Amino acid sequence: MEALPIPTDTFKLGFIGAGKMAESIARGIVRSGVLPPNRISTFHANPIRRQAFESFGVELLHKNGDVVEESDIVIFSVKPQVVKDVVLQLRPLLSKKKLLVSIAAGVKLKDLQEWAGNSRFIRVMPNTPSAVGEAASVMSLGVGATEQDGDLIAKLFGSVGKTWKADEKLFDAVTGVSGSGPAYIYLAIEALADGGVAAGLPRELALGLASQTVLGAASMVTSTGKHPGQLKDDVASPAGTTIAGIHELEKGGFRGILMNAVLAAAKRSREFSQSQ
């Protein structure tokens, strides 16, 4: 059966897997007005997860097969270890009329397409800040997915942050930067706050200042278009406090440590994808 354009005004969206990431994406889609909740469905046996989706109007169905049959776009948001079994189980329902999306880390498009018997697949890698509408999502189109399909998925994931298109061969590196990157920044925020406490600040004030400072610095990079090195230079006046702090960071190999963290996470992602 030939792939048909998804009806952009009336399409229905289904999530196979109703975990926290799926919830974040669904909430963002509803909050942004891209899709009303009554055109989104999912299934989960756990009443707590069911309640989480029902709380903002998503339809809860009786089984995953019902979700696929109801939907024009199906997002597989299950753990990487089980995605093969889930896709194979649903394969008879995965016709080319349906646009399929996977957010399972480390699972390649060629495998997804083979398991589904459908090459109209798009792989997306979001990250956890999707929960607050600030995701960094990267997508790669399977051989059967059209540019219109890609634009539609970019719109959906754009409702929870920013999206980029990239060749799938870059996804391990993407994992190292945006997939694992939030955890590095949480460590940095915690360390900044600890430094503030060590210098005499109350814990609550130190944590508030540290987190807002990181948020503000990131916003400066994205909104001004300036290179972060230039923004750093703007803060670091001659013989001042900032350059003294930067000197300590450089002595500790701060930049090299972050670069190594990205490379280590990318290497682990590559190992994981090769084991599929």
UniProtKB/TrEMBL annotation:
Q: Where in the cell is it found?
A: Cytoplasm
Identify the pathway.
Amino-acid biosynthesis; L-proline biosynthesis; L-proline from L-glutamate 5-semialdehyde: step 1/1
Pyrroline-5-carboxylate reductase dimerisation domain span:
168-271
Q: Which residues bind NADPH?
A: N64
Q: Which PROSITE patterns match?
A: P5CR
Q: Which SUPFAM superfamilies match?
A: 6-phosphogluconate dehydrogenase C-terminal domain-like, NAD(P)-binding Rossmann-fold domains
> Where is this protein primarily located?
cytoplasm
| Single GO MF annotation | pyrroline-5-carboxylate reductase activity
* Class of enzymatic activity (EC top level): oxidoreductase
Q: Where is the Pyrroline-5-carboxylate reductase catalytic N-terminal domain?
A: 12-106
Q: Which UniProt keywords apply?
A: Amino-acid biosynthesis, Cytoplasm, NADP, Oxidoreductase, Proline biosynthesis
Question: Which GO terms of type biological process are on file?
Answer: L-proline biosynthetic process
InterPro entries, alphabetized: 6-PGluconate_DH-like_C_sf, NAD(P)-bd_dom_sf, P5C_Rdtase_cat_N, P5CR-like_CS, P5CR_dimer, Pyrroline-COOH_reductase
Gene3D superfamilies of this UniProt entry? NAD(P)-binding Rossmann-like Domain, ProC C-terminal domain-like
Q: Which domain of life is it from?
A: Eukaryota
Question: What residues bind NADP(+), as annotated?
Answer: I16, G17, A18, G19, K20, M21
Q: Which GO terms describe its cellular component?
A: cytoplasm
Q: What is its EC number?
A: 1.5.1.2
Q: Which reaction does it catalyse?
A: L-proline + NAD(+) = (S)-1-pyrroline-5-carboxylate + NADH + 2 H(+); L-proline + NADP(+) = (S)-1-pyrroline-5-carboxylate + NADPH + 2 H(+)
What family does the entry list? Belongs to the pyrroline-5-carboxylate reductase family.
Protein name from the UniProt record: Pyrroline-5-carboxylate reductase
Which organism encodes this protein? Prunus avium (Cherry)
